[in-house]
Amino acid sequence: EAGPYSRTRIAPVTYTSLLRNNRDFRLLYIGQAISQLGDWFNAVAIYALLLDLTGSATAVAWMMIVQFLPVAIVGPMAGVVVDRVNRRRLMIGTDILRGCLVLVLLVIRRPDQVWIAYVVMAVIVGAQGFFEPARTATIPNVTSEEELLPANALSSATWSTMLAVGASVGGLVTHLAGRNVAFSVNALSFFASAFF
Question: Whole-model pTM?
Answer without folding.
Answer: 0.85
